[in-house]
Design a protein that fits this description.
The structure is a single chain. Helix content is 33%, strand content 21%. It has helices at residues 17-29, 47-55, 72-78, 83-86, 91-94, 114-125, 141-144, 150-159, 162-168, 187-201, 212-224, and strands spanning 6-12, 37-42, 59-62, 100-104, 108-110, 129-133, 174-182, 228-231, 237-238, 245-246, 253-254, 265-267, 276-280, 286-290. The longest helix is centred in the middle third of the chain and has 15 residues, at 187-201. Helix 2 (47-55) links the parallel strand 2 (37-42) and strand 3. The radius of gyration is 19 Å and the shape is globular. The protein is of the alpha/beta class and 295 residues long. Helix 9 (162-168) packs across helix 11 and helix 10 crosses helix 11. The chain folds into 2 domains: 6-233, Spore Coat Polysaccharide Biosynthesis Protein SpsA, Chain A, CATH 3.90.550; 237-290, no CATH class. The strands form 4 sheets. A 7-stranded mixed β-sheet has the order 3-2-1-4-7-6-8, sandwiched between helices.
Length: 295
C-alpha cells in the first residue's frame, strides 16, 4: 500500500483531549477523496491520553522549542500548550516527507469530508495558501458593531510596529485554525521569520500575544503577496461569531440563515468549548446540544 503523500496535523494536551479525540474520530469516520496521514503534536499529553490518540492511528511527536523569546519558560508555565502556536510554521520539520500539510485546531472537527477534500486537493494542485477568513455574512459582530475590526487592530498593535500594521490593516483576518499548504511553499519560512521577530520584540508576554502566530501569518502573506485561496466559512465555522442551526431532517449543523448549507468543519471558538447551547432547528423550536463531535 502506497504511503499517503499528505498529512493532517493537530496538537493536544490533556485538557483538550476530549476535543482532540472528537477531531480524530471525525477524520476516521468519513471517506475522503485523498488519503492522508494524521499527526498530533504533544503539548502535554499523559500516558493514557497518548494511548487513546495512538489508537486512532495518529503519529504523536512532542512539541519542542521552535522559537525562543524573553520570558518563554514562565509564559509556557502560565499557558500550557502554547507550543501548539509556535510549532505551526515548522510542521514540515515535525512530520517530514509529505507533499501537503493541513492543520486543524484540536477544537475543530470535520462534520463532512468536503473541507479536507477541497483544501488538500487544492494545495496539491496549486502553490497557494488555502484558508478561511474571519468575515462572513452570518458572523454577526461584523454587522452589529460600528468598529468590527477594533479588537483585531488592538492585537496587531500589541505585537507589531505601527508601520507594519498600517501596511496591511484592515485586510480580512485569516484564521490559521484550519489551513492547507504545500511543503515547498515559501510561506513557511516567511511566517516563521515574522513570528520569531514578533515574539522576541515583546517585553512581556500577555494574552495579547496568544494570537501572535495568526497575526504573523497574516503579516507575512499580505506584505509579501503570497497567493491565497479563500475558503468558505463552512470550512472553518467560527462558532463564537455565529451559532449554527440544526437541520431537523439530517441532524447536521447548518448555516443559521438561508440557504442553510451544511457546515463542513465546526470550530468551537467559544471559551467554554464543551458547554451546551440552545440551537434553533429548521422545523422551528430549539434543541439543547453541544457543538462537539457527537460520535
Amino acid at each position: 500500500m502506497t504511503a499517503p503523500r499528505n498529512i493532517v496535523i493537530t496538537a493536544a494536551n490533556d485538557p483538550y483531549l476530549p476535543l482532540a479525540l472528537g477531531l480524530l474520530r471525525s477524520l476516521r469516520a468519513h471517506k475522503f477523496s485523498l488519503p492522508f496521514a494524521i499527526g498530533v503534536l504533544d503539548v502535554g499529553l499523559g500516558d493514557s491520553a497518548k494511548a487513546q490518540v495512538a489508537a486512532l492511528g495518529a503519529v504523536i511527536v512532542p512539541a519542542r522549542v521552535d522559537i525562543d523569546y524573553p520570558g518563554r519558560v514562565e509564559w509556557e508555565r502560565q499557558m500550557p500548550g502554547f507550543r501548539a502556536m509556535t510549532a505551526r510554521p515548522f510542521l514540515r520539520d515535525y512530520f517530514p516527507g509529505y507533499d501537503v500539510y493541513m492543520w486543524m485546531d484540536a477544537d475543530a472537527w470535520a462534520q463532512t469530508p468536503e473541507a479536507v477534500d477541497v483544501m488538500l486537493d487544492g494545495a496539491e494542485a496549486e502553490d497557494a495558501l488555502f484558508i478561511a477568513s474571519e468575515i462572513d455574512r452570518d458572523y454577526r459582530p461584523y454587522f452589529l458593531s460600528s468598529q468590527p475590526w477594533d479588537y483585531h487592530l488592538k492585537w496587531y498593535r500589541a505585537n507589531f510596529p505601527a508601520e507594519t500594521v498600517a501596511a496591511i490593516f484592515p485586510r480580512p483576518m485569516l484564521s490559521d485554525a484550519v489551513f492547507a499548504l504545500r511543503a515547498t511553499s515559501k510561506v513557511w519560512a516567511a511566517w516563521a521569520e515574522v513570528y520569531a521577530v514578533c515574539l522576541q520584540r515583546v517585553e512581556k508576554m500577555t494574552r495579547q500575544q496568544f494570537m501572535g502566530d495568526q497575526l504573523s501569518l497574516n503579516i507575512a502573506v499580505y506584505t509579501q503577496g503570497f497567493p491565497l485561496r479563500i475558503m468558505p466559512a463552512e470550512f472553518n465555522w467560527l462558532s463564537l461569531y455565529a451559532l449554527p442551526m440544526i437541520d431537523a431532517d439530517t441532524g447536521l449543523f447548518v448555516r443559521p440563515t438561508p440557504p442553510r448549507t451544511v457546515i463542513s468543519v465546526m470550530h468551537l471558538t467559544h471559551e467554554k468549548k464543551m458547554r451546551s447551547f440552545d440551537l434553533a432547528t429548521t422545523r422551528g423550536g430549539t434543541v439543547e446540544c453541544s457543538l462537539m463531535n457527537p460520535n
